[in-house]
């Protein structure tokens, strides 16, 4: 239910943004390097994944903009014990809402909250795979910060962001676990102004 409410909210936000002045809609995609940070000291290795989605870019002033996004993101972590690798494959629909400071040369600094909605959680060890979605919370709250660059004439840009989960993703475990991840990507803004 939360997923559908968020998707509806994002659709309304994008539709409203599209009808306003100084607003651009775009597409984005890229590479994720994610991990899970545990409070008991246990460590995982980084897991590589991808992200793909939509973005809106709303000019508030000449230097400030708001950038809401709706992004599917593959996250998780992996570990190796006695030569056997286990992958924790998490899928999220993320909704970051970033405040951006725009420099005149196309560079941007950005930061803001991110709301993640768990769509899948599977662990794979060798050829054995099992679902553990019920062991995780359905909503993850975090904050993202990074920088970007858009080529003003074309609307094509690059983006680098680090996301820090602020909420414990474990549903029942006494161990507190948090998503952490680096995102690198490209985006294209239609009718960039």
Which strand order do you get reading across the main beta sheet?
1-2-3-4-5-7-8-9
Counted beta strands = 9
List low-pLDDT spans. Answer: 16-20
Number of helices: 1
- Write down the overall mean pLDDT: 90
Structural class: mainly beta
Structure summarized in a few sentences:
This protein has 193 residues and is mainly β.
Describe the structure in your own words:
The protein has 193 residues and is mainly beta. It has 1 helix and 9 strands, in the order H-E-E-E-E-E-E-E-E-E. The protein has one helix at 2-19; strands at 23-38, 47-59, 64-81, 84-102, 107-125, 128-131, 139-150, 156-165, 177-189. Strands 1-2-3-4-5-7-8-9 form an 8-stranded antiparallel β-barrel. Strand 2 and strand 3 form a beta hairpin. The longest helix has 18 residues, at 2-19. The protein is elongated. Mean pLDDT is 90; it is low at 16-20.
